[in-house]
Amino acid sequence: MEHNTIVAALLGLLEGLTEFIPVSSTGHVLLAGHFLGFDSPGRAFEVLIQLGAILAILGVYSKRIWDTFTSAPHDPRARRFIASVLLAFLPAAVIGAMAHKTIKEVLFETPMLIASMLILGGVVLLFVDRMAKNPRYHAAEDIPISRAICIGLIQCLAMIPGVSRSGATITGALLLGADKRSAAEFSFFLSMPTMLGAFVYDLYKNRDILDAASATNIVVGFICAFLSALVVVKVLLNYVSQHGYAVFAWWRIIVGAAVLAALAAGW
């Protein structure tokens, strides 16, 4: 149990560090757990600890969220932004519920697929980041509802572990006219209903198989994810505004290639 708790803490830190950067936190946590021999009943741990990252976002953006909702009754821009985020969330909610069993029992259990998606996603992100773009939207609130829904549809690709929820939404937003900072911010806001919905649904589906040891690991992972995500959220926007996403693309490619090599060697 002590070994699993230590590994749970490490995986929680990894979750928080990678949740909001386009490298696939779930892919990293699943692969790390695979190589560290971490046992997660129903693969609930990997989903439920994401609530820690959500609380980090809520903490950092609490004032902005409050201002948006309190101004909504008399501010069309605020109402449109709330509608954009909620409508963008719906495709993932519907498809995630329908495909939950396949995602958990097949996709989550295929390390080679996860590593391959890391590499493919890295190549796509590198290409998009280097494209010559003239962004039309410089704030997350200015992204039109129609484009927000398209971003929500693109987010559904992230149900394949290794694709990356933030990577899919950021790439979609960049292609649809957002600048690098507003793409990341829209991804942050969209993560709130998406990950909260995943948490509630997964907790409900796994309520009968979670024991005391599993609950302890989840709490430890949750706390570590919260603390590490706080750091990432506070520094990420300034970094991508100045440097873009290339470093994350190369990280994906390197990690994916290393995992494929390790699997080929029999790990």
UniProtKB/TrEMBL annotation:
Pfam families: BacA (PF02673)
GO cellular component: plasma membrane
The EC number(s) this enzyme carries: 3.6.1.27
Transmembrane segments: 42-61, 81-100, 112-132, 183-204, 216-237, 249-266
Function: Catalyzes the dephosphorylation of undecaprenyl diphosphate (UPP). Confers resistance to bacitracin.
Further comment: Bacitracin is thought to be involved in the inhibition of peptidoglycan synthesis by sequestering undecaprenyl diphosphate, thereby reducing the pool of lipid carrier available.
Protein name: Undecaprenyl-diphosphatase
Source organism: Paracoccus aestuariivivens
Name of the coding gene: uppP
